[in-house]
Amino acid sequence: MKLYDYPQCPFGQKVRIVLAEKELSYELVNVDLRRGEQKRPEFLKLNPFGKVPVLVDEDVVVYDSTIINEYLEDEYPHPRLMPEDSQGRARTRLFEDYADLAFILPVGVLMNEVRKPEAERDAERVRRSREEIERTLAYLNGQLGEQPYLGGEFSVADAAFAPRLMVLRAVGIELRPQWEPLRRWIERLAERPSVQKLEGLEGWR
Fold it and tell me: Do 40 and 91 sit in the same domain of this protein?
């Protein structure tokens, strides 16, 4: 098994969490996005969209992090990272999609702005990103309730949120006192070995 990935890619990071949870061995093939290696012809044969991650499992090629994680769940079902019932699986898929579209992207924007000297930051982009992130965090806090994880047990949905949750403090997002379920969830995620061994978070944790 090979995973074509870039260490800082949050979508690749969520796949690496699932691979670690399932204790699957794989060869990590670094695709340097800064040098445009994802646009090389040999990589485009694997993924015509020119994006990481891409999983190659013998003669099977799968791209898109969500589809990769579903493939891993189907092909290597132990431990289970999706509920068995259709309602639970739909809820998990909705959370994972929400992570991809409403959380990962604004946190990435904020990370890019924070890297810049303060005088060069786009104050409006920072404001909008912070608002989007805090709105998502408030929603997740309400969804968690007393559950330890989003679906009760750790799932691909938690794996999708984990990489960007680990950088919140570094980008200046503080958890509000009333977000206690959210705080406990983040602490549980940070304690998981699959999250602790993530590459690409150097300087952010």
Answer: no
Say how far apart CA 62 and CA 57 lie, in whole Å: 8
Element (H, E) at 60: strand 60-63
Alpha carbons within 13 angstroms on the beta-carbon side of residue 33 total 12
Q: Are residues 53 and 101 in the same domain?
A: no
Range of the domain at 56: 2-75
**What's the chain's average pLDDT?**
95
> Could you tell me the two tokens for 139?
């929603």
pTM of this structure: 0.95
CA 11 to chain CA mean position, Å = 5
- Tell me the pLDDT tens digit for each residue of 18-55: 999 999 999 999 999 999 999 999 999 999 999 999 99
Q: Whole-angstrom Cα distance, residue 174 to residue 187? A: 14
Structure tokens at 54: 């891409």
